[in-house]
Amino acid sequence: NVSIGYEALTSNTSGSYNVALGRSALKSNTSGYQNVAIGENTLYNCVGGTYNVAIGREVLTYTTGGSNIGLGYNAVQNNTSGFYNIGIGYEALKGDHPHTGEYNIGIGHSAGKSNKTGDHNISFGSYAGPLSSETSLNNRLYIGSSVASKGSNTFIYGHMDSTNPILAFNAKVG
After folding, report:
1. Distance in Å from the first CA to the final CA of the chain
2. What is the pLDDT of residue 151?
3. CB 170 within 8 A of CB 149
4. Across the beta sheet with 122-124, what order do the strands follow?
5. How far is it, in rounded angstroms, from Cα 86 to Cα 67?
6. Which of 69, 104, 103, 76 is nearest to 91 (CA)?
7. Are 31 and 51 in contact (CB under 8 A)?
8. Per-residue pLDDT in tens (0 to 9) along the chain, 174 residues
């Protein structure tokens, strides 16, 4: 383990191969292993999570899950137990606490921010993602870059359902 910063990796008892750089990075980790936390309060409450990468301030702050990647201020911040999420950008996949979604990708400022329990969603672009009332949708695609055009009104919207898939372009094509 490597730790640099006030209270970085201070609770560690059996965790191994962790890197904690910054104030309170991986502070609560006791048994988690192979995590990288760079920035203040990154992976702060990650007690036993594994294979997480968090870079930025307060990234993946509450997670106990694993194999998550968060880059940017508050990215994937409120994820508590989800696995395999990727949030890149300011508040990407932040979600409300507790956020338990899995297999989600959010790239862009606040991309996928409203998702709380949904799985297998892709949000690409600033503010792309579900409406604030749509916190538990699964298998959705959102591509756009406007706070006014969210949910099914996103520039490109998809519902990747195996029985009734939908791909909508909310613009003229051709």
Report:
1. 55
2. 87
3. yes
4. 2-4, 19-21, 36-38, 53-55, 69-71, 86-88, 105-107, 122-124, 140-143, 156-159, 166-169
5. 9
6. 76
7. no
8. 999 999 999 999 999 999 999 999 999 999 999 999 999 999 999 999 999 999 999 999 999 999 999 999 999 999 999 999 999 999 999 988 888 999 999 999 999 999 999 999 999 999 999 988 888 999 999 999 877 778 888 899 999 988 889 999 988 777
Report the C-alpha gap between 57 and 153 in whole angstroms.
Answer: 31
CA dist 14 and 93 (Å) reads: 30
SS3 content of the chain, % helix, strand, coil (to 5): 0, 25, 75
b/e 125-143 (16+ beta carbons within 10 angstroms → b):
bbbbbbeeebbebbbbbbb
C-beta of residue 12 within 8 angstroms of C-beta of residue 28: no
- CA distance linking residue 43 with residue 81, whole number of Å: 12
